Amino acid sequence: MPRKAHLEFEGAGYHVIDRGDRLEAIFLDGEDRGFFLKTLWQACERTGWRVPIYVLMGNHYHLLMETPEANLSSGMRWLQSTYTIRHHVRNRLRGHLFQGRYKAIIVDPHAETYFRTISDYIHLNPARAALIEPGKKLSDFRWSSFPVLIGIPRKRPAGLAAKRVVCGWGDADNARGRNRYREALEKRARDERTMSTIDEGMLKSFRRGLLEKFDSFSAGAGTSDKNQAS
Length: 230
Known about the structure:
The protein has 230 residues and is an alpha+beta fold. It has one domain (12-208): Transposase IS200-like (Alpha-Beta Plaits, 2-Layer Sandwich), CATH 3.30.70. The chain has helices at residues 30-47, 72-91, 112-123, 125-128, 145-149, 162-167, 175-194, 200-208, and strands spanning 12-19, 50-56, 60-67, 103-107. Strands 2-3-1-4 form a four-stranded antiparallel beta sheet, with helices on both faces. A hairpin with a 3-residue loop joins strand 2 and strand 3 (60-67). The chain is globular and about 45 Å long.
């Protein structure tokens, strides 16, 4: 039976997720993650995508993206096949890297509350997965858009839609706004590590791909195991 095509249209927003084949790692080290980000920004140049949020875990990744053109499938095909080739050449591997077709959940880019909620959910994955060492901060995890958004490093990739995220907290994309955003997310990360802040209903909704608006929900959702989060 043929697979159902992803819904594509101009101006669409998506939460894209994919995992390693048999849940194996798709990033063996920092250099692999660097290759993936390089490939992602090249994909943005080719397609016009804007990526406000990303996080690279061990056996999976999350992307929150906006597609000005209806080109999700063709762009993702190029992104994943190109990264797979680069990964395999570098690590002298063969075979499938990803478990199969990526999951793309449609996100309403104009639903500010939902956009902010899912942005925080993605950024907090390293905290939920215990990938942040004791004494370290969320911003010390290099492989998400969070440190880039707050100015670490200062130069942002052209495809990173930073203003949308920072301004979603009610501040301008300036030093003051970035600092307020940093403080808010660092606090959320500390809370994730010290107490149960999991909303299982929210997590199930994300996993099922349901688009819901949580007007009274203040960001974030729960996790699975300590190694990979969700």
